[in-house]
Amino acid sequence: MEPNKVQSEGGLNVTLTIRLLMHGKEVGSIIGKKGETVKKMREESGARINISEGNCPERIVTITGPTDAIFKAFAMIAYKFEEDIINSMSNSPATSKPPVTLRLVVPASQCGSLIGKGGSKIKEMRESTGAQVQVAGDMLPNSTERAVTISGTPEAIIQCVKQICVVMLESPPKGATIPYRPKPASTPVIFSGGQVRADPLAASAANLSLLLQHQPLPAYTIQGQYAIPHPDLTKLHQLAMQQTPFTPLGQTTPAFPGLDASPPASTHELSIPNDLIGCIIGRQGTKINEIRQMSGAQIKIANAMEGSSERQITITGTPANISLAQYLINARLTSEVTGMGTL
């Protein structure tokens, strides 16, 4: 304990609750073998650390306590993630160390104060701490909360979290907050006509997390009363490429002869922050062309609008084309946000 330090930060020693959004792999790292790591973090920081239950690809980690305890817990988490990065790099040819990334879940009503007038507050945070700070444009599914992504060195992240805590204390949330609760991973179900049915809210989060954990995305073909699992994403890719209805195993005729051979094209729109659009386009459009080719979808990126921090992406194609294009775009974003992006 350093009471002087707490006082020097403007007597900021009040009780706070901070929520973090983590992927399964990150949660495993925080819990440690037989829960030893999280137990040590709780004891040494003095903060309460709770991890949401469930078999969801994403989990919520809630840290509650006096601000100095919260900062200690954050420091321990940031250094643990840095240790994980160093360990993973020992088996990889990469030479530059990716930054540590943490995602906070913040009530949307407080995000305006974090961004500041014309982005002044967030700019000041970036400049004074050296951390990268991004406030998501959209609210997390079925909630009134947004993700705030902080990346940088553990030291920069700790300084940044301190500044965020000050802002959150100065500007409490307005009205009731509907907290974000991660959903279990949704599995797309592929019907005979090549349509993909999935829970759209959970699907993109699930795809991102599945990708992070290097697990194949399961897909199922409905054949009579039975679901036949396909081993990996390649089947979804083949299905997206296929313009005829999917044929049950051992048959050469379409499953439903009356079905139109080409599922009708539909359109889906996405908003991507300006500073991440480059990782989707790639050098001279290489990445976006790759995504178009793999998914079989038409993908248009709107020109930058004055005063907007986001670019609109329109994806057109069959539901299977669109599903695969979204998956591939999410994959690019994930690799960029986690610092693994190679442009």
Give structural notes.
The protein is an alpha+beta fold. It has helices at 3-8, 24-31, 36-45, 67-89, 108-115, 120-129, 154-170, 200-212, 233-241, 274-281, 286-295, 319-337, and strands at 15-23, 48-51, 58-66, 100-107, 132-135, 145-152, 189-190, 196-197, 219-223, 226-230, 266-273, 298-301, 310-317. A 6-stranded antiparallel β-sheet has the order 2-3-1-4-6-5. Strand 9 and strand 10 form a beta hairpin.
Which geometry do the CA atoms define?
globular
Number of strands: 13
Number of helices: 12
Q: N-to-C terminal Cα separation, in Å? A: 44 Å
Largest sheet: 6 strands, antiparallel
| Cα gyration radius (Å) | 22 Å
Assign the structural class, choosing from mainly alpha, mainly beta, alpha/beta, alpha+beta, or little secondary structure: alpha+beta
Order of the strands making up the biggest sheet: 2-3-1-4-6-5
Q: What is the H-and-E element order?
A: HEHHEEHEHHEEHEEHEEHEHHEEH
The poorly predicted ranges are 1-11, 187-233, 242-261
Name the beta content range: 15-25%
- Helical content (DSSP H or I, runs of 4+): 40-55%
What's the average pLDDT?
Answer: 75
